[in-house]
Each structure stands twice: as structure tokens, then as C-alpha cells.
Amino acid sequence: MPKKIIIIDDESSILEIYSQKFSTQANWQILTAKNGKEGLELIKQHQPNLILLDIVMPKADGFDVLQKIKKDETLKNIPVIMLTNLTDEEDKAEAFKRGALDYLVKAEHTPSQALEAVKRKLKV
Questions:
Q1: Which residue of 41, 42, 75, 98 has the lowest C-beta tally within 10 Å?
Q2: If we measure between CA atoms, which residue out of 40, 92, 42, 45 comes closest to residue 70?
Q3: Residues 33, 59: contact at Cβ < 8 Å?
């Protein structure tokens, strides 16, 4: 059964690039959401193997979404990797404090590098 990954980002181009890379290179099922509220609904409905989560988004930012995931008994064990352009160490520390498994800065990681990071976290 293919891995199920949810990508939550408000930039359509990011969703498209990462979805294509992950579905073709790893043969995973990719679901996407353009805001935190929509993302939480997808997560509850599909129980993915991993979540890639942006921070700056409308209708619930990534920190709020992460906190809600980690407080929900049925979702808290789903690994979450933050995928953002925020480079501030305080943002990174906050993400880890709230339960993120990893923190990738989009400008510093290609989609291929992000895919490799996800594979390592999923041990595939």
C-alpha cells in the first residue's frame, strides 16, 4: 500500500511541484490543502503517514495546525515536517517545541532533498 502524504501550503506552485515530485519519484498518494483549516480536515479524514506543513498560511497558521494535531489522540503520532521559508531560529525552536519532527527551509532544500528527508523519516 503506498504511503499517504498530506502537503499543506498556501502556494499553488509549491503544492504542484512537491506533489509531482513525491508521487512520481516515490509512488506515494499525495493529498494537498491550501490552508490550515482545510489541511486539518484532510488529516482527520485520511490519517496520512506524514504531513508536510507550511507555517505562514490563511485560516490557521502552521503552528496552530501542528498544535491541534499533537493534542488530538487519533492524530498525535503522525510525523509532521515543517516546510517553510521562515529562517528565524525562534520559529524553528517553536516548531520543535510543538512537536515537529523536522524543519526544512524551502529556499535551502530542493524538492528532491525534501523527498529524501521524508524517506528518511518514514524509513523507506
A1: 41
A2: 40
A3: no
Give the contacts of 61 (CB within 8 A, at least 6 positions apart).
Answer: 36, 55
Tens digits of pLDDT across the chain (124 residues): 789 999 999 999 999 999 999 998 888 999 999 999 999 999 999 999 999 999 999 888 999 999 999 999 999 999 999 999 999 999 999 999 999 999 999 999 999 999 999 999 988 7
pTM, two decimals, is 0.94
Which amino acid is present at 106?
K
Q: Domain range spanning residue 58? A: 4-122
User: Which CATH number goes with the domain that contains 36?
Assistant: 3.40.50.2300
